[in-house]
Amino acid sequence: FALDPVGLHPRERRRNSLGLGRLGVGSMRRLANLSYASCAPSRFEDVAPSDASHANVGESRGKTRLERVGMEHAQDGMVIKPQSNTPPLDTSKWPLLLKNYDKLNIRTGHYTPIPTGFSPLQRPIEDYIRYGVINLDKPANPSSHEVVAWAKRILRVDKTGHSGTLDPKVTGNLIVCVDRATRLVKSQQGAGKQYVCVAKLHNKVEGGVAKVARAIETLTGALFQRPPLISAVKRQLRIRTIYESKLLEYDEERNLVVFWVKCEAGTYIRTLCVHLGLLLGVGGHMQELRRVRSGILGEGDNLRTMHDLLDAMWLYDNFKDETYLRRVIMPLEVLLTNYKRLVVKDSAVNAICYGAKLMIPGLLRFETGIETGEEVVIMTTKGEAVAVGIAQMTTAVMATVDHGEVAKIKRVVMERDTYPRRWGLGPNAQAKKKLIADGKLDKYGRPNESTPKEYLRAVPDLDRNGGSTPTAKAVEVETPVETPKVEPETPASDKKKKKDKKEKEKKRERSPSADASAEKKKKKKDKDSATPKSEKKKKEKKDSDDSE
């Protein structure tokens, strides 16, 4: 075995030559013997070298040091091997609309990311406030409108709204929507509510706790309700649904009942307490009420007080510390987590913000179980809510078709031009813009006298080829068809008289008082016709004498 410096890197060869130059000839021989001894098999191991080992030694002689290291790493399995499938992502702990993102159905994975927009939790603080909601614990005595007005003044924003009015004395869950989130107020006002109520019974119930519990469970399903006397709406009989109700506590000494109720939006718990008293036969009224859930947010979902909001804003104004403000305010996407999701390409976002329908080419992922007419949330790949839409296709259709309308827009949440415009960038659109600029098309893109014939031949006229808006040019001249003349059976005046007569008869049938007055007039007329003219003249003369 001999040292072969040929296969080494030039730098290493130079370093070795310098090192060997310092050694004597004897030292070089000892080095050679040592290297041979290390490579030779031990005398205790009676192993013959195989052909493969000779081949490896020969191969390693012709390799550089870096290549040899690479080969060792590859043999140890320290290499990322190519694979056809993408490794699965665990998105179960991702926030808001991105939760379980990997379980969505994939239509395509090809799109161009646009470096605009922000993840909901990483928005700048100004945008975070404008796209925020507060799960507020409403205090007793101020009205819901007053509380919302205070929040607007504290946060210094243009608009605020709430998820459903609470009476002044009622406390509990009130969702305050800030600025852009006010567009979701209607959806939250119509969501179901949950209350804990304290009712006062006017007398002792003979059956005890069992009878009270049975009466509360009876008051479920669709119930007739008339708003109480102190309500601000028209006192009209209406139907409201109680989904579930249960007794929490009954104090027999003080005749107080504490119960929990899950009901439809617009249910009057005050009226429910009166009905409970009537059902028990003792009478009753509402003593105290607290809302524990409004829609998707309840008491345990980041409930904050007005003091928390005021303190958080004070810290931000004086110390620029936005951490407390981010704890008090939540992104509006919190309200949309129970909707089914449609993920769109970044290039389609701004078109949707301007009111365009979502079409198949703009769709990236979609949820399982979407039905036609169902409300869905349209979101970006960063997890931002773009709009609330109404699905025009089922999940099965979305997976199979190549073109068509996926959803139409119900309410746009995102502000326009958050993402850049990506429509009108194709070759046809660019050519059309140029012709409009040159005056060869009018400002709406319609052809005029100076439009080139090549353009007219290349671009189909949709109006002329069966479009929805027919033009004057597309009118066809119809050939007149001779029809035999039909003489009218009765003149128009006779028809009109008959029609008037029928209407009068219908009116008489409807009103009996009209029939009575008509009979009186007829009798008077008959009486007048029965009396001779001489008597009439005498009567008229007598009346004139009396008047004098």
TrEMBL record:
Molecular functions per Gene Ontology: pseudouridine synthase activity; RNA binding
Pfam family membership, one: TruB_C_2
Compositionally skewed regions (Low complexity) per UniProt: 471-483
Domain of life assignment: Eukaryota
Dyskerin-like domain span: 90-148
Family affiliation: Belongs to the pseudouridine synthase TruB family.
Stored PANTHER family: CENTROMERE/MICROTUBULE BINDING PROTEIN CBF5, H_ACA RIBONUCLEOPROTEIN COMPLEX SUBUNIT DKC1
Name of the protein in its database record: PUA domain-containing protein
Organism annotation: Picocystis salinarum
